[in-house]
Specification:
This is L-rhamnose isomerase/sugar isomerase. This protein is of the alpha/beta class. Helix 5 links the parallel strand 5 and strand 6. The longest helix is centred in the N-terminal third of the chain and has 23 residues. The protein binds manganese (II) ion.
């Protein structure tokens, strides 16, 4: 299904007066409102193809109905999100869950919805039907060279699909690790991983990048071969300029200071971008901003400051993607909430009085420094985000309109109640 622009326009007209009052109230306090609106209008967050279906846990999976049955339907779902919020203009594919059989046709379909293809993701954390060798004991770090070769070949094949789709990033996450002390020689596992990555890196086209994601634990419970940003950065530095460290918010040990990690990776020119989600305990894959919105704001504050210091373009010089899974929510509603939370945190970061903050820091005026950050964080920027969306042709209230138009009901009618999208 495809949304008609008149549905959005009619809905916006109904809300126009209330929105205009709220926008005027906030905008009046923003010194350069045009700058903020332009940045918000440009900012796009990629939607992963695996987040469009209801996810499960190791205990079970409860599908919600109307889930996309094919890659084409996944593109249509992201098209719906983008029509509503005008900030979801890219889709990130996971191979082999979503193999583009006919790349020109899928590219054309995406273009119809105003979408481009973001990073392509490889998968060596599970065995596929008919696969010759198993990844039970890892992939790129495996003790058996034949398994490593198979995993390397898979990554190079993913790049090939990406080239057909117009992507220019291979995003890589390994579940490689160990479950028990003694199982693995850490140093040798790391060096085997490096050697495998060198082969993949050598196969990258000149204009491509390799994002190396890290994760502290799970599915392995004793060690992960790329466990933290230091280990990822070591690999990225050894590989070369095209290799960068990807930060997934849920992949840290509890209470890690992620904003500090981000600031330093950015300073080194080694930050690839983000996988957004939220968590309370571990890699919980919760809706962005649902647990710790202040942390999200502090991260964006470092991103904006750090990118400005390096003269980077906020929207296009880092990779922005959601990486989450939804057990109990309608995935499309969840993604709308997640993108909204990201836009809110970004808008708040754009409001920080950086000059006053630098002065307060120089003078060691701790109270003023904290006040400046919290002043921005406590500003209700939702009308600014809504105004940017309105200017882009999106809906003032995407979730409300999604429900009013009964989009999920229409998708269930079209696709059936018992559809299960590929993914975890
Ligand atoms: Mn991730």
């Amino acid at each position: 299904m495809k949304l008609e622009q008149h549905h959005i326009d009619t809905f916006n007209t109904d809300q126009a007066d209330a929105h205009a009052r709220a926008f005027a109230f906030t905008a009046e306090k923003v010194p350069d409102i045009q700058y903020v609106l332009q940045r918000l209008q440009e900012f796009q967050v990629a939607i992963p193809s695996w987040a469009l279906g209801t996810g499960g846990t190791r205990f079970g999976r409860f599908s919600g109905g109307g889930e996309p049955r094919s890659l084409e339907e996944k593109v249509e779902d992201v098209g719906l999100l983008h029509a509503l919020n005008r900030a979801s203009g890219a889709i990130s594919l996971h191979i082999p869950w979503d193999i583009p059989e006919n790349a020109p046709a899928i590219k054309a379909l995406a273009a119809q919805h105003g979408l481009r293809f973001d990073a392509v993701n490889s998968n060596t954390f599970q065995d596929q039907p008919g696969q010759k060798l198993s990844y039970k004991f890892g992939s790129l770090h495996h003790t058996d060279k034949a398994v490593r070769k198979q995993a390397i070949a898979h990554n190079i094949e993913v790049v090939k699909y990406g080239i057909e789709l117009g992507s220019n990033v291979l995003s890589l996450w390994l579940s490689d690790g160990s479950n028990f002390p003694g199982q693995l020689n850490f140093r040798e596992a790391f060096l085997r991983t490096l050697e495998s990555l060198q082969e993949i890196y050598a196969a990258l086209p000149a204009d491509w990048k390799l994002y190396i994601e890290y994760k502290s634990c799970e599915p392995n419970f004793y060690s992960t071969t790329i466990a933290d940003w230091g280990q990822s950065l070591m690999l990225a530095n050894k590989l070369g300029d095209k290799a960068l460290t990807l930060v997934d918010l849920g992949h840290h040990l509890p209470n890690a200071n992620i904003e500090q990690i981000v600031a330093l990776l950015l300073m080194e020119g080694k930050l690839a971008g983000f996988h957004f989600n939220d968590s309370k305990y571990g890699d919980d894959d919760l809706t962005v901003g649902s647990i710790n919105p202040y942390q999200l704001f502090l991260i964006f504050n470092e991103l904006v400051e750090g990118m400005d210091a390096r003269g980077m373009h906020h929207a296009s010089d880092l990779g922005w993607m959601i990486d989450a899974s939804h057990n109990v929510k309608d995935p499309l509603e969840d993604l709308l909430q997640s993108v909204e939370a990201i836009m809110i945190a970004y808008a708040q970061a754009l409001l920080v009085d950086t000059k006053a903050l630098a002065e307060a820091r120089q003078a060691n005026d701790v109270v003023t420094a904290q006040e400046i950050l919290q002043e921005a964080y406590r500003t209700d920027v939702r009308p600014l985000v809504a105004q940017a969306r309105l200017l882009n042709g999106g809906a003032l209230q995407p979730v409300q309109l999604y429900r009013r138009l009964k989009i999920r009901e229409a998708l269930i009618k079209e696709r059936g109640l018992k559809t299960v999208a590929t993914g975890l």
